[in-house]
Amino acid sequence: MNEIEWEVFLDRTNDSWGLQRRDKTSDLTNELVIEVLSACKEDNLAQLKTMLKDRDPDSSPSAKEMLFTASIAKSASVVQYLLDQFPSLESSLRLHEVGFDAGPEIYNMYLQRFPELFEHSFGHMGDQIGMAVLNNDLPMLSFLLNKGFNIMYAHLDYTPILTFAEENGEIDQEIIDLLKSYGAPTGEYLDCYNP
Questions:
Q1: FRET partner for 20 with CA separation of 20 to 30 A, picked from 27, 45, 154, 176?
Q2: Which residues fall within 8 angstroms of residue 193, CB to CB, at 6 or more apart?
């Protein structure tokens, strides 16, 4: 019998999510996987705890898949439960993106569980402050600045974030004003690797 592996995918173009099989050749179905991930999606912590109590690791989704699903659905109680229940979970760029996209409440849980995320960015695209600005996400930007993220090296594609925000034309003035109030630098290029 082939082991079924599931992965959660996020389609950023229409903000949807779902499950897809990694093993496209198998015609097996696994209702437990769907039920567990549905409980994660629906923030049904009681049902999830019941199903995981007698969990068969070969027939249920991985902790990371459950965490992806709960985070994408913004199921805060399930996210916290999973972070507490699975201490061996390791951070990754994809996990970081999913936690960040879930908003300040869930991202704060990720930061508490994975403090190394304070130092990680989203690759060449930018850092957390840069992504919050790009998304015009004032609540997330405020959260990050209040949490102590470094505004001096905030960037998008190595362009200082205030320069990007002012030149973009689509960034809300409130965001630009907030960046200025925190002393965000301007310039043409930011050498992010030599702070």
A1: 45
A2: none
* Closest CA relative to residue 171, chosen from 143, 132, 142, 122: 132
Q: How far is the C-alpha of 35 from the C-alpha of 60, rounded, in Å?
A: 9
At 156-189, the pLDDT tens digits run: 888 899 999 999 889 999 999 999 999 999 887 6
Cβ distance 36 to 61 under 8 Å? Answer: yes
More confidently predicted of 43 and 23: 43
Could you tell me the two tokens for 147? 């949490």
Q: Computed over its alpha carbons, how large is the radius of gyration of the chain? A: 19
Residue 107 CA to residue 92 CA, distance in Å, equals 14
* DSSP designation for 4: P
CB distance 106 to 74 below 8 Å = yes
Angstrom distance (rounded) from CA 169 to CA 93: 29
Quote the CA–CA distance of 26 and 1 in Å, as a whole number.
9
Look-up of token digits 């704060």: 108
pLDDT in the model for residue 131: 95
Cβ burial 57-96 (10 Å sphere, 16+ → b, else e)? eeebbebbbbbbbbbbbebbebbbbbbeeeeebeeeeebb
Q: Is 84 helix (H, G, I), strand (E, B) or coil?
A: helix
Pick from 179, 151, 152: nearest CA to 165 = 179
